[in-house]
Amino acid sequence: MVTLHKKNKRKDYVESFAYRRPVDASTLIIVNASNEVLLGKRSSKHIFMPEQYVFPGGRVDPGDSRVFCPIEAEPELIKELTETVSKARAQGIAMAAVRETFEETGLILGSPWKHLIQTKSPSWRPFFNQGMVPALNRLKFFTRAITPPGQVRRYDTRFFLAKAKYLTGELQGNGELLDLRWMNIAQATSLPLSPITTLVLQVLKEYQNGNSTHPSILLKEIAGAALKTE
Fold it and tell me: Rounded distance, CA 183 to CA 164, Å?
């Protein structure tokens, strides 16, 4: 339990979380044919970044590394992820991006499968009940960012890209993300964005304009010392 004191309240609050270990998380940047991205507003009930617009995503669940997935991610994506985690964990991180996107937006990055997949994972059962399996081969690694120390939540987030044409389903949220909408980067900057979303949109703009620098390097250059990236 965190106790806040009247004197130096903000300082005490920040120091209380200074050494919190980041939790693995995954985010999916979905880009349509008009170069628009899908964003949604986090509920006011969230402790972390309430009422800010973000890409769909969330923390990696234990089941993400264990459930059946016959469609493997591309070797280039696995290579990027396994620089910091095991291959099993890498697949779990990629799977989390697909699952969280389905939960928060109703959109499925998947392919039809010959039979209904049975699973003990309650997080994955709704997805498999659609008769689909995750299409990890449609994911592209984009960048990685770690929430700075001192925050109430800290995440080690991997950002992935996917083209909207590979997703199916009806756009509808589960309450975690509200006001889901497609918009170009210029429009998005007028919204209340989380700091990391703002940074990643800047990197995405450079990427769309043909900048060949690796997005993770661009993110470091744009963020400077304000954001820890590896």
Answer: 13
Q: Show Cβ contacts of residue 82 under 8 Å, excluding neighbours closer than 6 positions.
A: 90
**Identity of residue 18:** A
Tokens standing for 94? 């990629």
DSSP state of 45: T
Domain 9-226 top-level CATH class: alpha beta
Q: What angle do CA 112, 116, 122 make, to 5 degrees?
A: 110
CB 198 within 8 A of CB 94: no
> Taking the domains of the chain in order of start, what are their residue ranges?
9-226
Handedness of CA 225, 227, 228, 230 (dihedral sign): negative
- How confident is the model over 114-145, as pLDDT tens digits? 899 999 999 999 999 999 999 999 999 999 99
Q: Which token pair is 166?
A: 């590979």
pTM > 0.70: yes
